[in-house]
């Protein structure tokens, strides 16, 4: 008997209004393999998977699971076919506990027997080597803990086919390694897995085969052993692209931002930044490293005037060599002082952009106050919007499309484009390439480098240590709110950074 | 002593209608639907129960109390559920704006109540002539034997069965939401329908059931008012703004039906306090009537300072859900 | 019988309003050409308005008017809508327009000024005489007469309770649910009290206001409070069945207003005082038809059949009530009994005459008091007795 | 495999797909159909519950609303009041500040207007008095709006409930004032204020008593339309409404915007109070707002916060309301029937928006395979 495939997609098409997200895509997942799906942002990976998980319904095409043609009308149908999907954005209910999230929607006795459920979950976590407190509330969890809940949720349901949509986008390298170990265990267990990720080294490390999508169409599937980063990129983009960052020597370095002994606390009153001091110079890229939640966000937000400081001071050295005290000034006051500070926050649609507004209106967020007039001027922002769409190759049906509809990569391009358009003397970016495909990521790196060349100070938080080492001039390392070191990116290595990040390394300040 | 006893009794009496409304609205809101039509639905529930009993007593020579009670209960249940269904169809299936549908439903429901109230008034031979005394007596019947105990009897056992039902419903709703699978699923739907959907919960079905059920429960508040409180008669707009207070109570109770119980008694008490406070002038009486609202505001401000995750409204409250929307 | 000259006058009036439509001066035609407008504060679901509607209906039958000749507007609030409604009725060719709520009076006057050829009649108001408008009229009933009689029924009931030993003579306290501390209400509860006291001398009364004309739940709550406060019998001047309904539950006898309360209080309602507006409406419309001059102030009671009490609830009333009622009614009709007989009450222990003689605040009542009684509703149609007499306590200060 | 294989071969019978865009003509066509359907359903209801000829009932409504010049003007006056309130609510709702307290803001504005008419009629010349009245009533509404805004901004207090409760507080304040202003004592009616001098009344304009109402409300509507769409304030309101974090990031002082917007919103609703008191009723009572504050929410939402569309929507609702007065008179049809009909029409109108935003697809005939 011939071996049946776990999943077969045949000629599947899905449109959203004018956008064709998937165009006649055919794809196969063999039993017991790990298949990676690659594609640029907006190439339709999530859409394709969502048709398997019952979120979307295909316009055309056929789906076969274990050799049988099926119709998946809802997530429930999908579960009953043994498919479990871990979505790109966590699908967890914040106010519920892990255990409650895990048993959500499952049949069973009317009354919930919580101790029993907890026991079952603990059995699973033991089996696969997770670390999870089933009674913990989701809102108290870190991203990796949430990720764990998502995976256990799928396992608890007894899924045979697992789909993971960019599970590593928000994980640290260490966490990623752990996750991959789990996935390999599951494969050993006979489960079939599809994983979507933009990190090509992960793809090469983990998967058996790789399928590539481009602009909604299926390109090809290759055996992992035959693939390289370059070949995959070419398949994705459709042409050869160079994947190196041209780092130049910093020139004409002057103090730009000076942070002295700042302290701040989060909403729960716990310290998130303790006695942090550092200097950012013009004409350099200062990288910020640290495991997630070490105070990176607060550090940038403090400078941007979005974080309440308990103590400490922040100074801005103007190109004209005067000093502005930014301590305890709010964002609007900083702007009024004429300080050209650009900031790309971590939360793109929750902070950097307004999801329901179109590109033009999003362009105005930082500049609408310009001019004396009581009325806003929309001419300039509209021009800027079309310029960014053109220069950064933003994929959008039209300028009037709400940015919420764009894919993650395009959203990020819009945001970075706008901030750079401010012609800032200081550019701060948090996780600039999170969720971005490799091509877009390099576009962003190049933009940062250009800013640096213009003599601007660039501060960027990046979780990928390889990129940090390749892109930055100096790297500042945070560990639970303390700066454990500022090192020269050219002379340090991953191990050193890792030690500083976990706080086991000795404090290091190479530039002082 | 007598005064205090009567005051407590009447405060509870005033509170029960609000309690039904609040419990119904809590169940509804837990599914993410903000049903501002509850005030209207309570009118619809009240009048249909009354009409059921009225036509029964009118057409039967010797009406049997229990049958009258059953008919009116059923009528209320069906008609108010229907009100909830209209709301559900428009907001869940047609994804219309919840605020507009709710407010329009209130207009509709109050009109519905007053219209039919007037119509059966006419049939009965004029204002105040509607009489469903047999049925009303059944609704008003207090707990036998126990109600004879001095003080305790008055305080605890002098009410009709709807009063106890209101409390039982609230308690069991709290249990349902906290300890059952369906309750958990419902909460998930109200928090984040996309997540609930992805977990295989039939979001539409939960939203429909909770909203229709919630409306039916709220409608019982109308029935209580018309039958137990008024003794089976109708007065236009007689239910007043209690439906709105019920919605207010939901927030005050932090979406917990158990809290709504004491909250409704508090509201009830403050509602009639002006009658019991001695030495008030007409003007100060009017100021005293502000109390339920002012107290609500004060409690609201105090509780807003504690920003606990669990005491927030369901996060998807007021929003329509469309699976393919992003 | 109406003089023919008067008829002519009126017909010329009609011609003015209806312009070229009809030039006929014939009396017969006048009855069929006349148009009557009425605006009510409420509708048939509200007791007070319902009684006016009945009056209009009877007037229609009595004068043989067709449905088209009477335009009824319901639910007209006491604001600019009252004016809108009044002028709209005038625009539609009404020759006489009635309004039944106090707050509509100023708007009626506004309209009356604009339409001098249309007659405007307003119930419960007081400004017609002083308005300087010849087409503005006020009307009301001597409802205090009926209240006095219902007071007698209540007093007899109290006597029965005392005799039964259910209560002592000192406990004979009446609770009264009032709408507003307004002459109409004060006059009403005083007459009720005087009626009760005329048969049960130890009776006292407590009045609590609801601050609303129709607030079913408020009335029920006030009644409950009065009962808890020791009232053994409840009466009301408020428009709903709220109080009787609460009394029924508490088993306390009660006297209603406007409508028969036995439907909601079969085992506790004694009787109700009611208005009969038919005599006035018939009179007023007939005056317009006949072209005779209408009273600027019209107020009638038992004599004209403008007030009455509903059938006694034999289950509840004290024995002999019917006879006593008949006797008192007759006495009021023939003028041998005056409700506000100044010998039957005191104020602060003093008689009203003495107080008037003393001057001060009471001097203004001099015009009303003569021949040993207070001439209620004789100088103006609306009630004017607003004195707080001994034996009655207002719980609202 | 541990689990049974579930074979699902049925495609859903109907599916909904979000429309990308729809032509204006098509959208209005759908709305027209909705209105017609609504009228048909309402007609059935009329026949069922009243046994009246529905066509005549509708004709009666038209007659009642616009049948004479005077009726037309009454209808216009009511439309203006409704429009004014809906326009006032717009900034707040755009900011996602659920202000259901227009009722209270109107009452406070009305009370302020009445107070000045009563106490200052002989102290100020009438032109100045009128201006003062408009200003103080706006301030009164503003105060009633800024209280919940303050607590929202600084304590994140739920504004829905807060504003709702303030409605009742305002109601009690009015009753309280009436105890002092009523004439005669105990009557609970204030009567026409300054009926002789007309001090503080809106004067006639262009020979029409409601001329000034028209001018003021239309000016206000235009101003707010511009304010919301083209002004920096309007832009800030939209950003704050979408996300407070974004607003802070954009350098918007969120607290200030919340306060300022509710000041604008409250002030307009307060002004509506003077529009009703000084410009129409010349009295004050608890029914001065008369539920308009709630209906205006429906108006604002149905118009999708477009002030110009609000003119249409409020015209439609007021038309129904004024028409119903006539049908009550003409057919003895209880006025509450009109609430039922209005409800039905609103249900259809908001229901039809679905067909403008979504496309419904029926199951395709057959599919290849088994
Ligand atoms: N619900 C939706 N409504 C409208 N358009 C959508 C929707 N979902 C996806 N799209 C569009 O379909 C296209 C494919 O999106 P999809 O999310 O599948 O891309 P992706 O490959 O997952 O991208 P990324 O790498 O950024 O996650 C994009 O252009 C996106 O804007
Ligand atoms: N607001 C945000 N902040 C940070 N990262 C984001 C944000 N939004 C999206 N991303 C990242 O961008 C990537 C692509 O997001 P995108 O919007 O394309 O999602 P999607 O594939 O369309 O998801 P779905 O279709 O499930 O909604 C994701 O990996 C996500 O982590
Ligand atoms: Mg994706
Ligand atoms: Mg995407």
TrEMBL record, chain A:
Highest taxon in the source lineage: Bacteria
Segment forming the signal sequence: none
Record keywords, A-Z: ATP-binding, Nucleotide-binding, Repeat, Transport
Domain ABC transporter, chain residue ranges per copy: 7-240, 257-505
Pfam family of the protein (one): ABC_tran
Any GO MF annotation of the entry: ATP hydrolysis activity
Keyword RNA-binding among record annotations: no
Gene3D superfamilies reported in the protein's UniProt record: P-loop containing nucleotide triphosphate hydrolases
PANTHER family documented for this protein: CARBOHYDRATE TRANSPORT ATP-BINDING PROTEIN MG119-RELATED, GALACTOFURANOSE TRANSPORTER ATP-BINDING PROTEIN YTFR
Protein name: ABC transporter ATP-binding protein
Species assigned in the record: Candidatus Galacturonatibacter soehngenii
From TrEMBL, chain B:
Entry GO CC: plasma membrane
The protein's name in its UniProt record: ABC transporter permease
Recorded topology in the membrane: Multi-pass membrane protein
Signal peptide as annotated in the record: none
Alphabetic keyword roster: Cell membrane, Membrane, Transmembrane, Transmembrane helix
Gene Ontology molecular function terms on file: transmembrane transporter activity
Localization per Swiss-Prot or TrEMBL: Cell membrane
Top-level division of the source organism's lineage: Bacteria
Species: Candidatus Galacturonatibacter soehngenii
Keyword Ion transport: no
Annotated TM spans: 37-56, 68-90, 156-177, 208-227, 260-277
From TrEMBL, chain D:
Xref: InterPro entries: ABC_transp_permease
One Gene Ontology cellular component: plasma membrane
Topology class, membrane: Multi-pass membrane protein
UniProt KW keywords: Cell membrane, Membrane, Transmembrane, Transmembrane helix
Transmembrane portions of the chain: 28-50, 70-93, 105-121, 127-149, 161-181, 201-227, 257-277, 297-319, 340-360
Pfam families recorded: BPD_transp_2
Gene Ontology molecular functions: transmembrane transporter activity
Compartment(s) of residence: Cell membrane
Name listed for the protein in its UniProt record: ABC transporter permease
């Amino acid at each position: 008997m011939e071996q049946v495939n776990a999943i077969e997609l045949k000629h599947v098409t899905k449109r959203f209004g004018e956008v064709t997200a998937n165009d006649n895509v055919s794809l196969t997942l063999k039993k017991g393999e790990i298949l990676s799906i690659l594609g640029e942002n907006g190439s339709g990976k999530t859409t394709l998977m969502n048709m398997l998980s019952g979120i979307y319904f295909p316009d055309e095409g056929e789906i076969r699971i274990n050799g049988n043609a099926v119709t998946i009308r809802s997530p429930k149908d999908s579960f009953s076919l043994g498919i479990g999907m871990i979505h790109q954005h966590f699908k967890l209910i914040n106010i519920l506990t892990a255990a409650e999230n895990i048993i959500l929607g499952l049949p069973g006795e009317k009354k919930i027997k919580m101790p029993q459920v907890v026991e079952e979950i603990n059995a699973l976590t033991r089996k696969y080597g997770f670390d999870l407190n089933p009674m913990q509330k989701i809102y108290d969890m870190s991203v990796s803990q949430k990720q764990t809940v998502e995976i256990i949720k799928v396992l608890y349901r007894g899924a045979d086919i697992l789909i993971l949509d960019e599970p590593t986008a928000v994980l640290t390298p260490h966490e990623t390694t752990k996750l991959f170990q789990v996935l390999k265990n599951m494969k050993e267990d006979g489960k079939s897995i599809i994983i979507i990720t933009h990190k090509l080294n992960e793809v090469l490390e983990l998967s058996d085969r790789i399928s590539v999508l481009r602009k909604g169409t299926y390109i090809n599937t290759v055996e992992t052993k035959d693939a390289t980063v370059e070949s995959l990129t070419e398949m994705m983009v459709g042409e050869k692209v160079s994947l190196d960052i041209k780092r130049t020597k910093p020139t004409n370095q002057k103090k730009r931002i000076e942070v002295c002994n700042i302290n701040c606390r989060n909403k729960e009153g716990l310290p998130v930044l303790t006695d942090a001091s550092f200097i950012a110079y013009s004409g350099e890229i200062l990288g910020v490293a640290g495991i997630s939640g070490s105070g990176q966000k607060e550090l940038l937000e403090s400078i941007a005037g979005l974080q309440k400081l308990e103590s400490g001071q922040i100074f801005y050295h103007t190109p004209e060599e005067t000093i502005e005290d930014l301590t305890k000034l709010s964002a609007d006051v900083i702007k009024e002082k004429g300080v050209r500070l650009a900031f790309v926050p971590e939360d793109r649609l929750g902070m950097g952009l307004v999801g329901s507004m179109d590109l033009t209106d999003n362009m105005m967020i930082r500049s609408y106050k310009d001019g004396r007039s009581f009325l806003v001027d929309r001419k300039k922002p509209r021009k800027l919007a079309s310029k960014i769409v053109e220069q950064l190759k933003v994929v959008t049906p039209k300028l009037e499309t709400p940015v919420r509809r764009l894919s993650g990569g395009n959203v990020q391009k819009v945001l970075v484009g706008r901030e750079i358009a401010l012609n800032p003397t200081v550019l701060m970016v948090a996780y600039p390439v999170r969720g971005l495909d490799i091509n877009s990521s390099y576009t962003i790196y190049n933009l940062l480098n250009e800013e640096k060349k213009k003599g601007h100070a660039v501060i960027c938080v990046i979780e990928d240590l390889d990129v940090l080492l390749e892109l930055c001039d100096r790297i500042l390392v945070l560990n639970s709110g303390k700066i454990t070191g500022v090192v020269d990116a050219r002379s340090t290595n991953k191990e050193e950074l890792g030690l500083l990040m976990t706080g086991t390394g000795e404090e290091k300040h190479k530039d002082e | 002593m007598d005064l205090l006893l009567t005051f407590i009794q009447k405060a509870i009496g005033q509170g029960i209608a609000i309690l039904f409304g609040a419990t119904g609205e809590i169940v509804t809101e837990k599914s993410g639907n903000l049903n501002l039509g509850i005030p209207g639905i309570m009118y619809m529930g009240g009048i249909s129960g009354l009409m059921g009993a009225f036509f029964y007593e009118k057409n039967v020579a010797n009406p049997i109390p229990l049958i009258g009670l059953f008919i009116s209960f059923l009528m209320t249940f069906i008609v108010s559920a229907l009100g909830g269904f209209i709301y559900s169809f428009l907001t869940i299936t047609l994804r219309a704006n919840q605020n507009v549908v709710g407010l329009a439903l209130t207009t509709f429901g109050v009109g519905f109540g007053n219209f039919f109230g007037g119509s059966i008034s006419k049939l009965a031979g004029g204002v105040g002539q509607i009489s469903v005394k047999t049925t009303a007596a059944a609704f008003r019947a207090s707990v036998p034997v126990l109600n004879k105990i001095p003080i305790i009897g008055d305080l605890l056992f002098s009410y009709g069965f709807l009063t106890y039902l209101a409390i039982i419903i609230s308690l069991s709703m709290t249990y349902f939401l906290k300890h059952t699978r369906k309750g958990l699923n419902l909460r998930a739907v109200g928090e984040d329908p996309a997540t609930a959907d992805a977990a295989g919960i039939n979001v539409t079905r939960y939203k429909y059931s909770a909203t229709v059920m919630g409306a039916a429960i709220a409608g019982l508040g109308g029935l209580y008012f018309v039958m137990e409180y008024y003794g089976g008669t109708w007065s236009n707009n007689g239910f007043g703004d209690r439906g709105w207070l019920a919605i207010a109570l939901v927030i005050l109770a932090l979406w917990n039906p158990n809290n709504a119980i004491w909250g409704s008694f508090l509201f009830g008490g403050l509602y009639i306090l002006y009658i019991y406070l001695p030495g008030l002038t007409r003007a100060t009486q009017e100021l005293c009537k502000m109390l339920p609202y002012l107290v609500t505001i004060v409690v609201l401000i105090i509780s807003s300072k504690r920003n606990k995750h669990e005491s927030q409204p369901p996060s998807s409250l007021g929003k329509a859900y469309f699976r393919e929307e992003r | 019988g109406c003089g023919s000259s008067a008829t002519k006058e009126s017909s010329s009036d009609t011609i003015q309003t209806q312009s070229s439509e009809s030039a006929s001066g014939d009396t017969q035609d006048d009855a069929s050409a006349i148009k009557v407008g009425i605006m009510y504060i409420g509708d048939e679901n509200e007791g007070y308005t319902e009684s006016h509607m009945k009056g209009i209906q009877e007037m229609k039958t009595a004068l043989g008017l067709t449905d088209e000749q009477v335009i009824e507007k319901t639910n007209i609030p006491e604001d600019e809508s009252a004016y809108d409604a009044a002028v709209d009725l005038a625009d539609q060719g009404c020759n006489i327009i009635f309004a039944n709520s106090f707050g509509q009076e100023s708007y009626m006057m506004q309209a009356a000024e604009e339409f001098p050829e249309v007659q405007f009649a307003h119930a419960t108001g007081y400004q017609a005489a002083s308005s300087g408008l010849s087409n503005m009229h006020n009307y009301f009933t001597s409802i205090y007469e009926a209240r006095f009689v219902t007071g007698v029924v209540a007093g007899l009931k109290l006597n029965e309770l005392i005799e039964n030993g259910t209560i002592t003579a000192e406990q004979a306290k009446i609770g009264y649910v009032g709408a507003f501390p307004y002459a109409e209400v004060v006059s009403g509860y005083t007459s009720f009290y005087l009626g009760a006291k005329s048969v049960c001398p130890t009776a006292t009364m407590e009045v609590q206001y609801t601050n609303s004309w129709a607030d079913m739940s408020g009335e029920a709550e006030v009644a409950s409070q009065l009962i808890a406060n020791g009232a053994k019998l409840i009466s009301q001047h408020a428009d709903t069945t709220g109080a009787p309904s609460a009394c029924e539950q508490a088993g306390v006898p009660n006297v209603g207003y406007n409508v028969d309360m036995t439907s909601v209080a079969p085992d506790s309602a004694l009787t109700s005082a009611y208005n009969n507006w038919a005599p006035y409406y018939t009179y007023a419309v007939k005056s317009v038809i006949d072209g005779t001059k209408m009273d600027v102030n019209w107020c009638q009671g038992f004599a004209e059949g403008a007030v009455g009490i509903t059938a006694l609830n034999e289950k509840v009333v004290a024995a002999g009530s019917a006879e006593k009622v008949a006797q008192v009614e007759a006495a009021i009709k023939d003028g041998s009994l005056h409700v506000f007989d100044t010998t039957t009450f005191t104020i602060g222990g003093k008689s009203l005459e003495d107080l008037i003689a003393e001057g001060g605040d009471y001097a203004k009542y001099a015009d009303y008091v003569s021949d040993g009684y207070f001439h209620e509703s004789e100088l103006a149609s609306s009630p004017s007795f607003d004195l707080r007499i001994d034996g009655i306590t207002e719980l609202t200060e | 495999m541990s689990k049974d294989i579930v074979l699902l071969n049925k495609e859903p019978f109907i599916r909904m797909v979000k429309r990308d865009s729809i032509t204006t003509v098509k959208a209005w066509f759908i709305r027209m159909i909705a209105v017609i359907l609504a009228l048909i359903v309402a007609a059935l209801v009329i026949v069922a519950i009243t046994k009246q000829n529905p066509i005549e009932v509708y004709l009666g409504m038209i007659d009642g609303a616009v049948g004479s010049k005077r009726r037309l003007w009454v209808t216009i006056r009511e439309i203006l009041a409704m429009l004014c309130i809906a326009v006032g609510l717009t900034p707040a709702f755009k900011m996602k500040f659920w202000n259901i307290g227009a009722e209270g803001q109107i009452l406070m504005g009305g009370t302020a207007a009445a107070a000045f008419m009563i106490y200052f009629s002989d102290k100020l010349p009438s032109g100045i008095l009128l201006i003062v009245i408009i200003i103080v009533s706006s301030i009164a509404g503003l105060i009633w709006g800024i209280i919940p805004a303050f607590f929202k901004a600084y304590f994140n207090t739920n504004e829905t409930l807060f504003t709702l409760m303030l409605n009742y507080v305002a109601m009690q304040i009015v009753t309280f004032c009436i105890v002092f202003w009523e004439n005669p004592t105990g009557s609970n009616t204030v009567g026409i204020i300054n009926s002789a001098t007309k001090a503080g009344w809106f004067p006639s304009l262009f020979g029409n008593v409601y001329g000034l109402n028209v001018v003021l409300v239309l000016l206000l509507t235009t101003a707010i339309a511009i304010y919301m769409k083209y002004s920096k304030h309007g832009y800030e309101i939209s950003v704050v409404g979408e996300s407070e974090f974004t607003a802070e990031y954009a350098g918007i002082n969120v607290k200030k915007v919340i306060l300022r917007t509710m000041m604008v919103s409250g002030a307009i609703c307060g002004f509506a109070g003077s529009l009703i008191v000084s410009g129409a009723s010349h009295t004050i009572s608890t029914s001065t707002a008369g539920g308009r504050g709630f209906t205006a929410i429906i108006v604002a939402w149905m118009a999708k916060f477009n002030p110009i569309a609000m003119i249409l929507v409020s015209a439609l609702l007021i038309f129904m309301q004024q028409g119903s007065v006539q049908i009550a008179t003409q057919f003895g049809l209880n006025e509450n029937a009109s609430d039922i009909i209005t409800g039905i029409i609103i249900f259809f109108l908001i229901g039809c928006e679905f067909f403008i935003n979504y496309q419904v697809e029926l199951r395709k005939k057959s599919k290849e395979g088994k």
